[in-house]
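This part of the workshop introduces the protein records we will be handling. A learned vocabulary of local backbone shapes supplies the integers on the structure line. Getting from the letters to the tokens is the skill we practise here. As an example, a complete record with its sequence and its structure tokens follows.
=====
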Amino acid sequence: MLDILSGIGAIELIERTSSTLRVQQVVQLSLAPAFLLAGIGAVMNVMTNRLIWVANKIERILNAGEEGDVEAMRAELPALELRRIFAQRAVMLSTASALTISVVIVLLFISAFVTTPLGTLVAVMWVISMGFLVAGLGSFLMETRTAAKRNRERMRERRVRSTA
């Protein structure tokens, strides 16, 4: 069996991976991306909750009967739809960032055990993941700004109605 494995370089691979020090170094290198994954997961939880809230609100407005102020509720739809788009984009871009960070972690482990230099690929994937994260956070910022702007408009409308 060992003769078969040695023919494909498996023994060399086993020798390189048997170093506890090398494995410890790779684990230490992958801790920062792993913590970043945890942070992205927490932010994505907030983003997803906002997306669900907006989607449910849109659905409630679209399913509203003739009771209540249907016209006022339907006036909310354009802002809600914009918020939904921004929130959905934020979740998708953050998910792409988490995926590429996971690829970075995998590449870090692989690079410790193969002779092919993967440093450039790791760096490129890291930059891509940061680009996705920045874009996702930017979309989340736009969603929260859209919500705040609509709240300010609603407060102005109420003030005008109460003084009239």
